[in-house]
Amino acid sequence: MSRAYAAVLVVPLVVALAILVAGGNVPLFRALQSASRIVPPVLFEAFWQSATYAGDGLAVFALATVLLARRPDAAWAGMIAAIPGSLVLQGLKALVPYDRPALVLMNDGVTVMGPVLQHGSFPSGHSVAAGILGGIVFLAYRSAPVRAAGLLVMILIGLSRAAVGVHWPIDIAVGLAAGWACAWIGWQAAGEQPWASTPRAQVAASAILGACAIGLLFHPMGLPAATSFRVALALAGALLALFAAQQGWVAQRAPAATRGAAVRDFAPVYAGATPDRAATTLEKRMGLIDFVKEAGEKLFGHGQAEAASPAATGGSDAANSGAADAILNYVKTQNLSATGLTITYDGASSTVTVYGVAPDQATREKIVLCCGNVAGVSGVKDMMSVDQSAPEGKYYTVVSGDTLSKISKQQYGDANQYMKIFEANKPMLSNPDKIYPGQKLRIPPA
């Protein structure tokens, strides 16, 4: 657990301890109810009922559909975290039978929106769910604005439980801390794990979360002012899940669909060409990126990868798996990594497919080059996404007589910028003078 993550965990625990020691549960509850009136009367009930509805278990799963397209591993981590979250919630409710504010205060100045609950106050289940959601977002994304948004939603859901009059502040604080801790447990099981980022896992997670989103249409929870939010969340969640499921389904079937004529269908320049007579190309292409099959690192020919070498007629599943492992190991030797990095190889089409979430665009492009600059690979299908978006580079294929200075002159109009190209292709390039015909290079934006 990182220091930043642990620091956030400590905050609600300290708040809970301070409330317990100072006996401030009742006055803080009244203060939160009073502060909730900052929302204009015309929006008051709709705002707070919608905020509190967002913390329901089904609603949190529907919110998690935003993770499916780019971070299915995070979606799985959240679902797994719900298991210890439910156990902790039910265990604490059984151990600490605490009555709700409406019963303790006998409705004396208590604003209750929705069903009037009386028992089982500690801790807040909605806050546990919100803590899981906030924790997963924090662990899955490095972006400060995204993390801040996750924390804001988490805190808002927690505070809404006091605003609608059903939970004490200490219930909320402990619930958020429990959820945050359970998110970390779920992350250890699925976060950045290859199995949780495969197309099959993406389809399965989409089906589960999509079903939860649709379930919201039949789950009003006695909060009539939240109806518009509930229906909108249900429809948005279902559409996001459908999109992610389609994305995963296409990716899952891609290797079979690209056999035989797949490379020809994408019109590669170098199918069957020799490096010496390969024409100069400058590419900026999504999807299948062509490579010179005869050029590159000699990774095949050892163990299982031998059967998937260019001499093979197609390769068995075991051979394809061995070749994929050889390429994956090569990527790792270059100190390149991506969340859920998964590589497959289809010997029939000599095509590599790579999945995962790279930390940035440069890493993504370098991983593609590591997969493609391999003897026996004629194309790489790039199915990756990135955490931090940036302008895309271009791909250039080296021809006989090329130098980095010559390429720099062609691309930037200045031969002296050759070190820019060299740096953009490290660590695969160890020397600016060591390039070879048929090798594909990254050309970073000017």
Task: Please provide a written account of the structure.
- This protein is an alpha/beta fold.
- Helices cover 52% and strands 9% of the residues.
- The protein contains 16 helices and eight strands.
- Strands 2, 3, 4, 5 and 6 form a five-stranded mixed beta sheet that branches.
- Strand 4, helix 14 and strand 5 form a beta-alpha-beta unit.
- The protein is elongated, with a radius of gyration of 27 Å.
Question: Helices, strands, pairings?
Answer:
Blueprint: H1 3-22, H2 25-35, H3 41-53, H4 57-63, H5 72-95, H6 101-104, H7 125-140, H8 144-163, H9 169-190, H10 199-215, H11 227-257, H12 262-265, E1 281-283, E2 287-290, H13 317-333, E3 339-346, E4 351-360, H14 361-372, E5 379-382, E6 385-388, E7 394-397, H15 404-412, H16 418-424, E8 440-443
Parallel strand pairs: 4-5, 4-6
Antiparallel strand pairs: 1-7, 2-5, 3-4, 7-8
Helix pairs in contact: 1-9, 3-8, 4-10, 5-7, 5-9, 5-10, 7-8, 7-9, 8-9, 10-11, 15-16
Features:
five-stranded mixed beta sheet, 16 helices, 8 strands, 9% strand
DSSP summary, beta strand count? 8
Radius of gyration: 27 Å
Form type: elongated
Q: What is the element string, with H for helices and E for strands? A: HHHHHHHHHHHHEEHEEHEEEHHE
Q: The biggest beta sheet, please? A: 5 strands, mixed
How large a portion of the residues is in β-strands, by DSSP E?
A: 5-15%
Structural class: alpha/beta
Low-confidence stretches: 255-286, 302-314
| End-to-end C-alpha gap | 39 Å
How many helical elements? Answer: 16
Averaged pLDDT: 85
The portion of residues assigned to helices is: 40-55%
